[in-house]
């Protein structure tokens, strides 16, 4: 099979980010004011909407004023043509030379995305201007090359892809093509010879696009629209067999909105939820990609929505990409404007790698082959649909009633699945926010230390000034993230409410319907499927945490061992880093023949778990506290053996706690609340509710409830471990744990400990991810999520306390 040849060079480039501010509309002029200032064609300043703030507030940084700088910024009076000339035209000329380009408008509802992309007759939008340029360039081309231009236009509505160039398009599927990346199977590609023809198609497609009138925008787009133009250039000169293929994707996103603002309900509300979901997925991708550039690898959740899968190339692959962030200058839109600018600011970090798509004539033929294949698939699909429709017409009334019942159930289960997916997205977002703030707070602490250490003579110097500016930035970020976190939590609450309604509907259907058993099994099956999705996400998150901690431990051990330090030196060094080593109780393992080897690596062979070390400052993503717990007296590195004694490992991550326990009882996972061990015989992971109480999975899915148990301790059998420790050691161990050198556990709380594996809470409030991970009904928020596990893969390490991030 012919393939597109690897190009000679790949050029790395960053996203071009432009901000376009629309004028105030009449309503905004009458009852609000303009709070956006565009300066020097690059800077955007958003004033505090609260006019009551005075000079003192301003000099003390108590206003919500924000300043950003972008590649381009356009004031309200500027036209689409100006935007096009300054940031799009060069990208478009590349398309005729075999390069890919993506242009997308991002902003809240009513901020001017469609105006920017489609425009009006007097002020044509970027789609129209780009198409005219492409045909102009082809017309003016002096070479004898042959050009062919094709166009497709799709929309993603409620996570379903429709062809806007088809009169009554069915839903289309996404496929991964090894050469072309993500493609939409069965999407019509129409050959066009002039810009006018494409504009005709564009208008036709736009008339089919789903729009609604909302409180904020009379013609609000309810779907994301992607216009794709492909230019194939068959070369006639020395590279006779070569075909260059440039692709231009022009994207008009649906607007993000809040249900309360748009005053919508029913279908509109559902659309809004789906739009927000895919935009949230896009925002998460922008976040992750931004982080990737700053800190190396980060998981980019493209697969969370169809939109992000379609935009994948534009965000990180082979594409020159321009993001036009559209904002409203109205004071009532302050929150949306700042939110859009924040994501636009992050998008500046995103890098793409552009290269010419050069293929052979054969490749060109293979493209046609692919088109034929996809048309054949479409024909098969249509035939199948026709056959189904025919058979539906001939079904008996009783069968039809049963079918109706089932299709109702399908709709319901679809809603449940969307509800779960939305919650996962929100919780992920919350998790990211919390993580960012954790890092922010650590940096804040370091900055405070650095500022305090500045000599008096330097207090007014440039270094001090830079530190203070950075400190203010971090404070702003923390405050913004906290605000965003509160909003996410509200959305999670709404999501939870919706979930309860859905649950009620299922229960009602079960009690009303004749075929109860079947429906019950079916609904149980679906609910378990949903629960499974949540569990998988939780597992993935935990794997990530464990991976990060291992990394940190490994690095640290390698460093410490490489230095060949003795215990005292290590303790001194740790103290300098602000780390207190509570209890040095490691003895050497027979398997560790020399002290140069990282104890963390000693987990192989017969060792049921590994030794490790974690220190907050060294940790790349999470804050951890580990506690090694042994009945053996403290031993130093110089001793001969690493003793495999019973051990506890405590980890704090986003207010989630794990503790590893090894004793002679069967390995188990235990849960406890602030006072007692709780739960039945077969505990399962728990998911936090949006409010203060974690959600009981069995409550959410009552079909999963196992007979209640009066026992206040729950055990979940884990895979057998090699460790087998005497029960007798347990009490002593517990005692040691309670009486750590720093008195980590208060004497009153000692009474709470009724089994192995209790955990000390260092007083961090539980939120974000901790809501999501392991806990049980009735936990107090303060002591929040306690989970005890003896997972064999988690490392056990010496005892430390690390400084909690500043709150
Ligand atoms: N630069 C501009 N000049 C004049 N009017 C504008 C401008 N930008 C937007 N508008 C007007 O603002 C209103 C909302 O714009 P538009 O429909 O483009 O918003 P949107 O971001 O696409 O909204 P949604 O996401 O809800 O589809 C429209 O009436 C549009 O004509």
TrEMBL record:
Residues 783-807 are annotated as: Disordered. One of its GO terms (biological process) is microtubule-based movement. GO terms for molecular function: ATP binding; microtubule binding; microtubule motor activity. ATP binds at residues 107-114. SUPFAM superfamilies: P-loop containing nucleoside triphosphate hydrolases. This is Kinesin-like protein. Residues 14-350 form the Kinesin motor domain. The keyword Nucleotide-binding applies.
């Amino acid at each position: 099979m012919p393939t597109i040849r690897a190009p000679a060079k790949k050029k790395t480039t960053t996203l071009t980010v432009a901000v376009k501010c629309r004028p105030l509309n009449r309503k905004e002029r009458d009852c609000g004011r303009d709070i956006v200032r565009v300066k020097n064609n690059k800077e955007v300043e958003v004033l505090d909407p609260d006019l009551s703030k005075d000079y003192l507030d301003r000099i003390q940084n108590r206003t919500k004023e924000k300043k950003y700088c972008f590649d381009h910024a356009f004031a309200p009076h500027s036209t689409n043509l100006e935007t096009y000339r300054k940031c799009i035209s060069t990208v478009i000329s590349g398309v005729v030379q075999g390069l890919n380009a993506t242009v997308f408008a991002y902003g809240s509802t009513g901020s001017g995305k469609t105006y920017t992309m489609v425009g009006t007759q007097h002020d044509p939008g970027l789609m129209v201007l780009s198409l005219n340029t492409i045909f102009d360039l082809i017309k003016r081309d002096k070479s004898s090359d042959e050009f062919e231009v094709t166009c497709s236009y799709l929309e993603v509505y409620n996570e379903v892809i429709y062809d806007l160039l088809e009169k009554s398009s069915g839903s289309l599927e996404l496929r991964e093509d090894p050469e072309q990346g993500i493609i939409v199977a069965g999407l019509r590609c129409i050959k066009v010879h002039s810009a006018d023809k494409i504009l005709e198609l564009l208008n036709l497609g736009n008339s089919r696009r789903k729009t609604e009138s909302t409180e904020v925008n009379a013609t609000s787009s309810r779907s994301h629209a992607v216009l794709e133009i492909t230019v194939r250039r068959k070369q006639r000169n020395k590279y006779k067999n070569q075909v260059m293929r440039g692709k231009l994707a022009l994207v008009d996103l649906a607007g993000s909105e809040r249900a309360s603002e748009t005053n919508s309900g029913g279908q509109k509300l559902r659309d809004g939820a789906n739009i927000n979901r895919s935009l949230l997925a896009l925002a998460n991708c922008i976040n992750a990609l931004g982080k990737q550039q700053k800190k190396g690898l980060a998981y980019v959740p493209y697969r969370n929505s169809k939109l992000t899968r379609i935009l994948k190339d534009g965000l990180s692959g082979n594409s020159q990409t321009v993001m036009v962030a559209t904002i409203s200058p109205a004071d009532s839109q302050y929150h949306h404007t700042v939110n859009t600018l924040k994501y636009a600011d992050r998008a500046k970090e995103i890098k793409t790698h552009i290269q010419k798509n050069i293929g052979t004539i054969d490749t060109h033929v293979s493209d046609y082959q692919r088109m034929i294949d996809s048309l054949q698939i479409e024909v098969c699909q249509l035939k199948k649909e026709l056959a189904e429709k025919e058979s539906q017409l001939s079904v008996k009334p009783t069968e039809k009633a049963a079918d109706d019942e089932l299709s109702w159930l399908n709709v319901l289960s679809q809603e449940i699945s969307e509800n779960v997916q939305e919650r996962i997205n929100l919780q992920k977002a919350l998790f990211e926010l919390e993580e960012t703030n954790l890092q922010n707070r650590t940096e804040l602490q370091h900055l405070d230390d650095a500022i305090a250490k500045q000599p008096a003579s330097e207090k007014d110097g440039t270094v001090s000034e830079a530190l203070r500016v950075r400190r203010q930035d971090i404070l702003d970020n923390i405050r913004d993230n906290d605000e965003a976190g509160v909003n996410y939590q509200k959305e999670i609450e709404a999501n939870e409410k919706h979930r309860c309604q859905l649950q009620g509907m299922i229960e009602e259907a079960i009690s009303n319907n004749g075929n109860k058993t079947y429906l019950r099994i079916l609904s149980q099956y679906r609910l378990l499927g949903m629960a499974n999705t949540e569990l998988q996400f939780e597992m993935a998150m935990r794997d990530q945490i464990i991976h990060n901690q291992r990394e940190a431990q490994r690095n640290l051990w390698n460093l410490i061992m490489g230095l060949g330090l003795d215990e005292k030196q290590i303790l001194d060094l740790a103290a300098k880093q602000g780390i207190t080593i509570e209890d040095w109780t490691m003895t050497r393992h027979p398997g560790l023949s020399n002290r140069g080897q990282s104890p963390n690596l000693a987990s192989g062979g017969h060792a049921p778990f590994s030794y490790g070390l974690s220190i907050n400052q060294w940790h790349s993503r999470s804050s951890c506290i580990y506690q090694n717990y042994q009945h053996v007296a403290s031993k130093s590195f110089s001793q001969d053996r690493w003793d495999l004694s019973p051990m506890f490992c405590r980890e704090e991550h986003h207010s989630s706690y794990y503790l590893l326990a090894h004793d002679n009882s069967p390995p188990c996972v235990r849960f406890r609340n602030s006072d007692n061990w709780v739960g039945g015989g077969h505990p399962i992971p728990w998911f936090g509710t949006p409010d203060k109480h974690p959600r009981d999975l069995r409550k959410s899915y009552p079909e999963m409830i196992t007979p209640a148990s009066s026992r206040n301790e729950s055990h979940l059998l884990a895979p057998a471990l090699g460790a087998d420790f005497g029960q007798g050691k347990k009490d002593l161990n517990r005692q040691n744990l309670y009486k750590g050198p720093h008195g980590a556990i208060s004497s009153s709380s000692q009474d709470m400990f009724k089994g192995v594996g209790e955990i000390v809470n260092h007083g961090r409030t539980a939120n974000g991810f901790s809501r999501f991970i392991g806990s049980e009904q009735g936990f107090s928020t303060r002591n929040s999520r306690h989970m005890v596990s003896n997972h064999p893969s988690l490392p056990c390490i010496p005892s430390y306390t690390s400084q909690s991030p500043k709150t």
